[in-house]
Amino acid sequence: MLPKNIELQEGNSLSDENLFDQEDYIKARVDEYIWQKSIEAGISRQRFLRILATMLGGTAIGGLARPLPARSQINTSNASKTKGSKILKPLPPGYISHSKGTLEMNWETMYGRGYLVPNDWFYVHNRNTPPAFDPSTWRLRIEGTGVSVPCEFTYDEIIAMPSISVTSAIECAANGRRFFEEAYNTPLSGTRWRLGAIGVAEWTGVPLSILLERAGLKSTARDVLVEGADLASLDEKGTQSKFSSVVPIAKATADNSLIVYAMNGEPLPPDHGQPCRVIFPGWAGNANVKWIERIEVSETPIYTQWVLNQMVLIGPDYPAISPYKGKLITYQNVKSAFELAWPATLSAGNYLLRGRSWSGKGKIVRVEVSLDGGRTWQFARLREPNFPFAWVRWDIDWNPTPGKYSLQARATDNLGNTQPSTVPWNDVGLLYGGVVSHPVTVQG
Q: What are the angstrom distances between the C-alpha of 368 and each of 44, 338, 355?
């Protein structure tokens, strides 16, 4: 005879009730697991749940679920709708793309937005479709003559380590390449970015120094190579090799150099390096390798073809210093951009011009704006926050009459670096930092 507090409804059975009880029990055990793991990892329960959400299936009891992340599967379906795009995330409306693997941030859409660039709008430069990620098999290997205990780390081990969050920009070294073409009336190969190959996000991860210490970092260590999973060609013959970058040990062990697994409070999206990438604040985008698999620490300088051929400024103003063909690219320079369409069309009347300025070497302390093509300048209002290695938002009042205008902005950082009016030529069109003239038409 059934207890009086249990009533069978049509279509139900005792086994259904027992299953319901069992599911409650399992759910309670999952909650206990989540609390325990978040405490062990020293992170909030909410952040742990976000990380856990990257996995499919299973209750995660005894470890993270093992199938491929849900985001990857969903976005793979989206990729088929974009006719061979190498980008997995849904393309935002009004996006700017130069090839199947590029997504340039639309500056007009940043008007009125907050300090950070949403993940969906963040620029993308993928040489190939993001590689698949299986948390049960992925490993990050640390080796080389600069460590005494070569080792491997699993995804679970990395997300359980002490973590910090850093607000920083990532900017492609070729951002602004199109302005080299226009200034010198010379076409260049590669993506013809304007100024949208940049984004600022909050990156969460483990300081790289912690992993290097666990690998027995030697006092004689000198260079650190970071290698990703994506294959790309370095020469006309189509020879394939894994993309990599090299930083000195001082940069690798800086407090804000991270092995990142989360972006703007969400698990790192596939297009931005899932499961892990490196962040070296201030350095050009190619140093911030995605989909990382291997780190080599060396007691001697590391010279890779990626660094020697693609991370240098080559031109008459950049003498070669062996073995480099030109000046090695490290930190980004100072730039400014208006939050306007290109070209922009506005209506006459009162208008609040907005923009953002940034520097790879520090914090922006001054922004000047010209409304008449550089003849006169006035100071813009800087708005908080203003983080070093990220950017500052600024604005200025404008009451234009109908006509055509050329707006300019130039910024200065706390080290005294100011945007010049002209920039020396380099053969690949990298690190354009000159003042840009933004065309605007004001209608009556």
A: 42, 12, 11
